Amino acid sequence: MGRILLVCRLAVRDLRRRRVEAALLLLAIMAATTTLTLGLVLRDAAGDPYQSTREATSGPDVVAGAGRAAGLSGLEELAGAPGVAGHSRPYPVAPATLQTSGRTSDVQAVGRDAAPAPIDQPKVVQGGWVRDGGVVVEAAFADALGVRAGDQVTLDGRRFEVTGVAVTAAMPPYPGSSCVVATGCVNGVVPDGRTLPEEMLRNPGLVWLTQADVRSLAPDPGSLSYVMNLKLTDPGQAQAFADANQGGALFVQSWQGILEDATELARDSQILLLIGAWLLGLLAVASLSVLVGSRMADQTRRVGLLKAVGGTPGLVAAVLLAEYVLVALVAAAAGLAVGTLAAPSLTESSAGLVGGAGTPPMTVSTAGLVTAVALGVAVVATVVPAVRAARSSTVDALADAPRPPRRVGWLIAVSARLPVPLLLASRVAARRPRRVVLGVVSIAVTVSGIYVLLVLNAFLGSQPLTGGYDDAQVEVLRHVLLVWTVILLSLAAVNAVVITWATVLDNRHSSALARALGATPREVSAALAAAQVLPALAGAALGVFPGGFALFAAINAITGGDSDRVTLPSLWQLLAVVLATVLVVAALTSVPAHLGARRPVTETL
Amino acid sequence: MSDTAGTPLLRARGLRKEYGKGEGRVRAVDEVDLDVGAGETVAIMGPSGCGKSTLLHLLGGLDRPSRGEVSLNGRRIDDIGEKALARLRRTAVGFVFQSFHLMEELTAVENVELSALLAGRSPRAARRRAEELLEQVGLAGRARFLPSALSGGQRQRVAVARALSNEPLVVLADEPTGNLDSAATLDVLRLFEGLHEAGQTLVIVTHDVRIAATADRMISMRDGVLVDETRLTGGTTGRLGALAGLGD
């Protein structure tokens, strides 16, 4: 017990003594845990409103549709099938064209009774329910069109008043609506060179009219389609029921299928966030490794003292690890809190469902996974320097002997032919190859992320309806990408500065010596900055290829996306990214490099 | 202390260096006047903390004085910019430090050629000069050794070779034998004797009377002030010379 107390006390005291570094560590891990939390809670957050909608509208377990009147008998048979507990009668559906304030859209018009239905009674969120001459518009569709109760619209040229706006659980919200008309529908972008039948509906919305109005829209009664809502004795068997009865003239969809379609946006956002979280986790490991490495160098004497008074290597390693574990735990808690609170802004599950996402519930598995990742990041970054410090000689540690730099003979020989700043820069870089690798990885991860952001941003800008996204949903995805970008770039910037500062500190002596031998402060600061810029150039190039290509391919494979539809960044864009990265890194590193090179030579020597 | 015939190579007038502020202000070097002639060897002695090293840093342009003037070869160096100072250290001054200050990852020959490379010499010329110097200091066989594989005396000889790399006007040595045992001290002593005989201008801060005895003049320093001077070739003019048994 005493030993645990000692370990905790030493860890806390050291963290308090180095508050800025502790804060940087906290931020680095928190960036990863926040993004991971966002990704994990998103699914639940989007699923909840659908369940609420299902409850509020007596949502069906299965929706069955039949094209043409001829299919009605099939629906009647289905209503009597084993396992069916009840149904709301087949309602007529007609395709139509809706126009309002200069905007035109295809719609599926469902004829409903004015009286409430026992199964799937859409919940009116604005205005009232259907009446003759009045149309009720599905909420997400109304949102996309910008129509409200009281507005005037036309359906196939006939004027209707929007009597209300409603939500339903019998169909995914616009623009992911399922197709219940015999003419067929297509959601998303029509591939180039492919011609579709004239009568096929494109990205149709859903509206409800009275049955009489729907019948009047149809050129002949035989052209109507029908839709029926079913309740099963066991709602959990809805998918099996749908699979068993699919085919022929019938279209059957379970509530699970509708949920899947309704939460597609959340799923895509979640995938983006989870990939972002892993990228940020990698950056956090790079950031932590550098911070921990430079802190360990400062702690050499402390390690020696601990060992001199009887601390075992195990105890020393435990003290060093405990600091970072404590920071990781705080970062996990903070990331969970911030991620949970920020999630609603990314989970606008569309206006087509009841209620906002609100604050999503925190599950034990989410909390556990986020905490495990935070601890993993801390341990991966800390364990090597901690074990190395624990194994070091007590006498050397007490003498505060720095870890000897690496010698890379060929690089020293080659650098002799370079101008002074590059000569010094390549030797600075060669002294700590692991730090150079971390710098390259950090920039490569960041540039890979930027590559994907460029592709996705261009995709969302040019083809908003691809994948069934409407403008509002595109905005949500853009929010997700913005969160990615801000956190990714912030962490990369912190990394660049931290790595440079660690390099400056590590090279205090050799920089001072170079100046004593005649190098100018400008040459030394240029060398310290160039020692970061050269790896940044390599990292940026690797980040574009293969990093960006591979990451985008991975996202495509996971989401089932079609990479043919996207426009990959042009060569000049990629060159601009590489150049901009190098310039930003140069700018970021110039300040610590300049400060390091200005340190009086006599103080250091 | 200005006892040099003709124009001095190195000249300091009213040199002062202060650290701290208000009550805590410390005057490390206080109104020092010093002339060092070309080819002369001057030893500066004094107790620890008397300002010897600070004076050396001021003379070599490693540090800037709070007041006073320093000239090298007739040119003021206390009021020139960092870049010009760097150029000066690169071409006209060679430093030898007590702790050697060799780059641990560079071999002996790479350490020696570093100054020449910084001065913009071609790699081939820098290497040739470095090898010559190592031969001169008796380390030709150790040219490819890392500092960690060399003894203290050998490391200091590498440092001396590095200081000579760009044929400086003056070599400033700060306690060059402070970290060495007797045998190694003797090696370095011989080296400085050789440099002295070759006409190299040397200013050596030292505690070691044997090193100081190789000088033309021995100056004593206390509390930042030059208090005594002993002209070893012409007889002592002060107490220290008498105490060291070097007086007339």
Please describe what this structure looks like.
The complex is a heterodimer of chains A (605) and B (248). With 605 residues, chain A is α+β, with helices and mostly antiparallel strands. Chain A folds into three domains: 1-57 and 263-277 and 297-399, no CATH class; 84-232, no CATH class; 409-605, no CATH class. Chain A has helices at residues 2-17, 19-56, 72-79, 139-145, 211-217, 238-245, 255-262, 264-298, 300-308, 313-342, 364-391, 394-398, 409-415, 420-431, 433-462, 471-506, 508-516, 521-559, 571-598, 601-604; strands at residues 62-66, 84-100, 103-112, 123-127, 134-138, 152-155, 158-167, 185-186, 201-202, 205-210, 225-232, 250-254. In chain A, the strands form two sheets. Chain A has a six-stranded mixed β-barrel with strand order 2-3-10-5-7-6. In chain A, strands 8-9 form a two-stranded parallel sheet. In chain A, a hairpin with a 2-residue loop joins strand 6 (152-155) and strand 7. The model of chain A has no long low-confidence stretch (mean pLDDT 81). Chain B is 33% helix and 25% strand. Chain B has eight helices and eleven strands. Chain B has helices at 52-59, 82-91, 108-118, 123-136, 152-164, 182-197, 209-212, 239-243; strands spanning 10-19, 26-36, 41-45, 67-72, 75-76, 93-96, 170-174, 201-205, 217-222, 225-231, 235-236. Chain B is globular and about 50 Å long. The chains are: A alpha+beta (605), B alpha/beta (248). Chain A binds chain B through residues 404-408, 412, 416-417, 420, 423, 427, 430-431, 509-510, 513-523, 600-602, 605, and chain B through 54, 57, 62-63, 82-83, 86-91, 95, 97, 99, 101, 103-106, 110, 113-115, 117-120, 123, 126-127, 146, 148, 162, 166. Chain A: Belongs to the ABC-4 integral membrane protein family. Chain A: Residues 276-392, 485-594 form the ABC3 transporter permease C-terminal domain. Chain A: The chain crosses the membrane at residues 20-42, 271-292, 367-387, 436-460, 480-505, 526-559, 571-591. Chain A: It is a multi-pass membrane protein.
